[in-house]
User: Fold this.
Amino acid sequence: MGSALSRATARFGFSATPRLDAELLMAHALGTTWEAMLLHRLDDPAPAAFADLAERRAAHEPVAYITGVRDFWTITLQVAPGVLIPRADSETLIEAAIAHFGMRSPRTVLDLGTGSGALLLAALDQWPGARGIGVDRSPDALAVAAANAERLGMADRAVIVAGGWEGTGGPHDLILCNPPYIETGAELPREVAGYEPAGALFAGPDGLDDYRAIAPLLRARIAPGGVACIEIGSTQGGTAAAPFRAEGLRVAVRPDLAGRDRCLVVTP
Assistant:
């Protein structure tokens, strides 16, 4: 196995984590977890299936689409082509929500553009007494999010529905949203541009189209004492906040673990 991992790692030089990519694919080929493989199976021979998985990764296909899973916050999600892959940066929104509510728990959660259901289901795992709604326009996303809610045992607390930025019409204690925020035509890594859905990435010439659409709708969606946590690009702290401030909303910018702007914390 060691030589197969080394060869694959050398082929994945385009990745920020080539060795980890190889190990995750090897664990998937073995039908075990990454941790169990490292602890107990490094002396096993490489299974034949690993070569095909490595070939797919060498073509820049994302690891999450190859394995079909991605860890996010405290949960493991199923992911599939056609649905944005959850990123650790988005966990900043959950951290912001925890900071807002402190010892309290939101009763209702609305996830706008739910995608795989990552933010909604992470919030429901964080607050077991909460209930939530995930909204998305994409049939692929709706199917994946519903399957994740079922698999994680949250189908009785998480409703997945078709819709847009207007949500469900009523107020919620916590609103989560990771909208598209990349400038149309921006150059992206091949594994993003070639595989992930453009509709979940691009938001007009300046990347702000969806913030402008969400801002006028948001005040009526936030319950008293509630908060909206909205993901932004790392250089958008001022520009993405502007449409919300223009609506008379209060906005703070929360950085991610790398110190980059990542989340608008919006209150009435």
